[in-house]
Design goal:
By secondary structure, this protein is an alpha+beta fold. Helices cover about 20% and strands about 15% of the residues.
Length: about 80
């Protein structure tokens, strides 16, 4: 997953640590949206603090990703 992201945190654009310590797997379309999608296309690595900041926010990226997969999210 980190390699697919070029070792960059999508939330802050900072480098992910090589050991992946203090990183979290994040659901781009958050589980709090009511959709629990555990597919690789909905997962990304974030710094732990970035994942806490993102929390259950429905981002523009989540709305676009949902639409690409035939799903609709309320912003």
């Amino acid at each position: 997953m980190a390699r697919d992201q070029a070792w960059v945190c999508p939330w802050c654009s900072g480098q992910l640590p090589p050991s992946l310590t203090r990183t979290h797997v994040d659901h781009i379309i958050p589980r709090a949206s009511g959709l629990v999608i555990e597919e690789a296309w909905n997962l990304q690595l974030l710094h732990g603090r970035c994942n806490q900041e993102k929390s259950d926010k429905i981002t523009i990226r989540a709305i676009i990703l949902a639409a690409e997969h035939g799903l609709t999210l309320a912003a």
